[in-house]
Every structure is written in C-alpha cells, then in structure tokens.
Amino acid sequence: MSQGQSGAEQRLVTPGMAVGPSTGKRAGSGVVAANDTFIATQLGWLRERNSTVSVDPINAAYMPRSGDLVIGMVAEVRNNLWFMDINGSFQGLLPMSLAPWKVEFGGARQHMDVGDVVLARVQEVDECHNVVLTMKGVGLRRLNQGAVERLPVQHIDRIRGENNERLQRLRDACDCRIMVGENGRVWIDGSPEGIRWARKAVHALASSGHRTDIDELLTTLENELKGDA
Amino acid sequence: MMGGYGDVQLLRDDGLRLDGRKIDEMRPVSIEAGVLPAADGSAMVTHGLNVAVAAVYGPMEAHPRKIQRQDRAVIDVRYNMAPFSTSDRIRPGFNRRSREISKVTAEALESVVLVERYPRSKIRVEIEILAAEAGTRCVGITAAAVALADAGIPMRDLIVGVASGKVEDTVVLDLDKAEDNYGQADLPVGILPNTGEIAFLQMDGDLSPDEFNLAMEYNFKAAKEIHEIMVDALRRRYEGGEV
Questions:
Q1: Do the domain assignments include residue A1?
Q2: What pLDDT, on a 0 to 100 scale, did the predictor assign at position B9?
C-alpha cells in the first residue's frame, strides 16, 4: 500500500468516528471532544503530536490567517481599493493605503487591473472572514511574468518539506524561481523549459502529496529532466 | 393511495417480497466517492435501481447577500430528478416535490455540518437523481453526506438516509417501487449512525407505535450497514493505489 504520510500512526478517519479517549490530551483541528472521547469531524489522517490529537484533512478549503503569504489575482477594482481572489471562500481587500505605490484616488486601475497577479500578505482576518491584504513588505509585489499553478492547500507543507528542502530541490532542478503561497497557488518563473518541467512536477506532487514515496517521485521527475537535457 | 389496492400482492406466499428479499433485507448498495473531478467533493450512490450523484462546492461567499448568516454557513441544497430517471418523463426544473426534498435535506445536513465554522458562507450541495426506484430522498442524503466528507467539510457524523415502511400489515425495510406505490406506510429517516441521533424523519401513511418501533429498528440496522459502505468508499478513494 502506498498510502499515508511519514510518521508513526497513520489512520484514515471519517467524520463521526471515535478516535480514542480524550483524557489528558488536547483536541486539535478536525477533532472534537464528546463524553471523554475524541470524535473526528473531517476526513483525513489522524495525527497525534505533543499530546494533541488532530486530523490532517485530505481535502480542505483555504482559510486565510493573518501573516499568510498569498498569491492573489485582481478580481475587481474600485477607486481606492482592489478586491483580490485569494482562492478562499471570500475575496481579500487591498486598500490603496497598503499598496506599495503612491496611488491617487481613482487611479487604482493604472497600477493594477483585473487579472493581474500579485504576491501579498494577509494583514488581518476578522471573525466574519473579512480579509485585508497588504503589499507593503519585503518581496511583496506585482508578478508580471511567469506561470501560476494550483496546489491542494493541505499538501503545501509536504511539498515544501522540512526547511523548504523539497521546494529547494524543485528550484535547483529547473533553475526557476518558485514561490508557494499559503493559499494553494504556486508562482513559477524561469526559462520556458524550466517552467514546463516545474508545472509538470507541481501537478504530479499535487496529486501525490499524501503519499510516502513523494521523494522517489521527485527523483524520477528530476531524472526525466536530466534525460531530456 | 395507501391500502386501497387489495388486489396487489406485495408479499409472496413464502413470506418473501416480490423481488425475493426478506422483510428486513436491504436492496444492494454501492458507493463511489470522488466521481466528479470539477467538484470540491462528490459521490455516486447506487441503491437498488436508484442512482444518485451528489456534488459539493464551497464553502464560498453566500450570494445573494440576504441569505448570509453572520454566525454560520448556509447549506444550499438542490435536489433534482433527471428527466430520464423514471419511465414517465419528468419535466425539467423545480417542482413542489423537489423543493420540499431540497428543504428537508438542507435542514438535515445543517444539523450535521459544523456550520458555525464558516460564517457568511454557503455550502452548495447538488443532488441529481439519475435513476429512481423509490427512496430517492434517502439515497440523495447518503450521497450528499459522502460528498461533503469528500470535500473536507467538517461534520459531526456521516448522515445516512434509510427508509422502512408497511406493506400488507407487515413492516418491511427499504421499500421498492411497488411497495412504495401500493404499500400502507413509508418512514424515511436520516440517522447519525455513531451517535444514534435522528436528523430527519418523515412519515407517509399510518404506523402503530409497535410498528413504528420495529420500522425504526430496521432503519437503524440498515443505517449501520450503509455507514460501513460509506466509510469503505471514502477509504477506497484515498487509501489504495493511485490517487
């Protein structure tokens, strides 16, 4: 069987399944406590770490948190702000005061128009899911070239690897600049061949993010690239 | 409609039903999760001759704004029978029956999904009945539950739709078309198998308290069986082979 992630106990749980006694442990995400028992609320892999029981979901929507680095797409422009599609349930709002340029009232469209892609950071999220973005910060900018790919949100940490190890392998293999947003979007920029390979690699990793043999898959892809060259 | 068809024999002389099932035997059920690549979550349920496909999209911003709830998500269910799902063509579009079933299904799902996690959002559940043979609302609920789990929506339990009824003064599990049309009662229920709670219950026709209890006993037994098939479908999708 090829399922599961690396780590000790890997058990697929479904909503409503009792996953063990709750005494002395804390409920993490995807788990609720009821009558001294933990009940899974999401479909995913059960994980226990530092006496916190949680579920790594198999499928998840992006839930913005403040500080997240996201790749957004301009969905709407007003006189003094932009609405960004950040791949979440709600659009993010980028006011002109948090843009990196000096923007005149009514001149927002001259800096960014619908369809433009930006690297931004989540400034603030309130309990009603209102998301405010900022582009003031090191490296935050409009992305004028390259390609944007999608990645399942729940696989991002796996594809990055420990200390961005896997991501660095990807970057080294194709000699591209690759940026992974927390919102499940990947920006790739480099030579056309590099981009082509990186997109293929991201696709392959996206569909195999939950598997243990992810490193072998990456090696196969790297060898393919070397073979082509 | 109930009980007025004395000449229709629904139980055979050997005590079995017209299709050869025992009175507490379910029609065969098979479930497949993740059948629609474009949806966030999906499932196809085959229950006897019923075929239902459910797709889940979201959570997304609720539109129009007037349906938004500041403290929770709303579940927007659209139950629809395909025009070709029965021998009489069904006129496409909403009708009184599909509106009612969409409403009760949404209410059943709202009690299971942790809606308070997604304020101002909407979770869209589309249930399409491709083939109908009686009990489609239950099959639709089961399909919706698997699709919701597949979409990663947090829920308290996987809700299972099952039905029992009464034919020829005998309580039977899981009515087929003839039993549904000519029987005396129908009791569709939405059951949370892990907690034993009931999220949805309707009754058409009359049952005595004893008959009701027996019908519920059958329903709970069937819910456990279907629940295992649902869990198995989700396992198969993610555990084995290429995903």
A1: no
A2: 86
The encoded tokens of residue A36 equal 């001294």
Terminal-residue alpha carbon distance, chain A: 34
Strands (E), chain A: 11-13, 18-21, 26-27, 31-34, 37-40, 44-49, 52-57, 69-77, 81-85, 92-95, 117-125, 131-134, 142-143, 147-150, 177-180, 185-189
Beta strand ranges found along A128-184 (DSSP E): 131-134, 142-143, 147-150, 177-180
Are residue A192 and residue A224 in the same domain, yes or no? Answer: yes
Contact (CB<8Å) B155/A91: no
Pair (A132, A75) in one structural domain: yes
Residue A62 lies in a domain: no
Range of the domain at A191: 147-228
Residue A166 lies in a domain: yes
pLDDT under 70: residue ranges of chain A: 1-10, 228-229
B178 neighbors B18 (Cβ within 8 angstroms): yes
A85 in Cβ contact with A73 (< 8 Å)? yes
Tell me the C-alpha distance between B59 and B57, whole Å. Answer: 7
Residue of chain A nearest B195, judged by CA positions: A16
User: pLDDT digit string (tens) for B172-188?
Assistant: 999 999 999 999 999 99
Same domain, A128 and A182: no
| Chain B residues whose beta carbon lies within 8 Å of the beta carbon of residue A55 | none
Is the ipTM higher than 0.90? The answer is: no
A109: which 2 tokens? 């469209």
β-bridge pairing A92-95 and B121-131: unpaired
The whole-number pLDDT of residue A56 equals: 86
Q: Domain total for chain A?
A: 3
Statement to judge: residues A139 and A110 lie in one domain: yes
What is the chain A residue with the closest CA to B145? A15
Tell me which of 3.30.230.70, 3.40.50.410, 3.50.50.60, 3.40.50.300 is the CATH number of domain B29-238: 3.30.230.70
First to last CA, chain B: 49
Is residue A32, in this structure, part of any structural domain at all?
A: yes
**Considering only alpha carbons, which residue of chain B is nearest residue A19?**
B194
User: CB A14 to CB B231 under 8 A?
Assistant: yes
Cα(A126)–Cα(B134) distance, integer angstroms: 46
Question: Along chain B (243 residues), what's the average pLDDT of each consecutive run of 10 residues?
Answer: 63 91 96 94 97 95 91 96 95 94 97 93 97 96 97 95 95 94 95 95 96 97 97 85 36
In tens, the pLDDT along A167-217 reads 998 999 999 999 999 999 999 999 999 999 999 999 888 877 777 777 888
